[in-house]
TrEMBL record:
PANTHER family: ANTIPORTER SUBUNIT MNHG2-RELATED. This is Monovalent cation/proton antiporter, MnhG/PhaG subunit. Keywords: Membrane, Transmembrane, Transmembrane helix. The chain crosses the membrane at residues 12-34, 46-68, 74-99. Pfam families: PhaG_MnhG_YufB. It comes from Sphingopyxis granuli. One of its GO terms (molecular function) is sodium:proton antiporter activity.
Length: 120
């Protein structure tokens, strides 16, 4: 079991800042659910907050356990990979389902369709 005194002061400060920063970024993304008006803006804010916050927290975790165990601990990279791959995919699926629902109900507040630019 890891004890707090096992971590050097310089590492504890860096780990604390990374974890605190990641938590704040995630909290700001969660506030997007309250502050933003449309579903599309809300889902975008939470996705960015979760991904960026997760990155900072996992960096802090990697640093903490690498120092205390005396070897590189990189299994957090798998967590980051899975979250980084699944969060945007979930965003796309939710947004497409909402667009389909809004179009079938003929709601006026739909995102505009953007035409792809053609290369000349």
């Amino acid at each position: 079991m890891m004890q707090a005194p096992d971590l050097p002061t310089w590492a504890a400060i860096i780990v604390g800042l990374l974890v605190l920063g990641g938590a704040i970024i995630t909290l700001v993304g969660a506030f997007g659910l309250i502050r933003l008006k449309t579903f599309y803006a809300r889902v975008h804010a939470t996705t960015l907050g979760a991904t960026a916050g997760m990155a900072a927290i996992l960096l802090g975790s990697m640093l903490c356990f690498s120092i205390t165990q005396g070897r590189p601990v990189v299994h957090e990279i798998l967590i980051a990979l899975f979250v980084t791959l699944t969060t945007p995919v979930t965003l796309i699926l939710l947004a497409r389902a909402a667009i389909y629902r809004d179009r079938s109900e003929k709601l006026p507040q739909l995102p505009t369709r953007s035409e792809p630019e053609r290369a000349e």
